[in-house]
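Please, structure for the following, as tokens.
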Amino acid sequence: MRAPIAPLFVPGDRPERFTKAAATAADAVIIDLEDAVDPSTKEAARANLLRHDIASKPVLARINGAGTSWWKEDLAMLDSAALSGVIVPKAERAEDLAEAAGSAGGKLAIIALIETVEGLDNIQAILSVPEVICVGFGSLDFGLDLGCQPSWEALLFTRSQLVLASRRAGKQAPIDGVTPTLDDPDLIAAEAYRARNMGFGGKLAIHPKQVLPILTAFRPTEKEITWAERVLAAATSDSAIKIDGQMIDKPLVERARRLMEAAAIPTEG
């Protein structure tokens, strides 16, 4: 499974929103059983997930974390749920990720949310679990655990570690955390663009209004696309070439190829 770029959360106890979420431009829907669901409706949310009828795009479930009273019940339903993947919150131990993978019969991709210092300390072991395709960043919870404001500057070092660890493990780029502001598309786009420039592969969305700004930010600009097209048209061998006063060698040719691949990201729902 390719890790999603702008996956959209929808509360598991609001099944009337499932179809609406699937109708957005989000490239995956995350049915949430964890933070968005009150303890009194956990069982109903799980039942709603099992009955979801989304077929147009990948569906993932964010289950409750290991150590909670809902962990075992959530794991028990994974093998029969119509899912493409599972998101494990507050991931701290590789053993928990392996247990989730085994409960799903090894058929589901896993995204491990790094939301605590302990999770970050154990990230290489977490990424070594074969079913874990990437990590996500639970920036708000991480800031709470660290005792800092979850600002970009305060968590810059952590974000860099997530990108480096993912590359070191040969896994897909990490997915950045949510922006809690819902009605500021410029802020959403700016934070998504910064994440993209750092090496993240996507950003979690908590409202439909956030999806298009995220997708647009992760899509190359027209200027980048034009540059990439010129480079690829001129690069007929491994020899360095000169374009607009810039020396273009193999790393920049590869960057041009990746930009053209990213240009295929849809930006309209």
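The chain has two domains: 8-218, 222-262. The chain has a mean pLDDT of 93.
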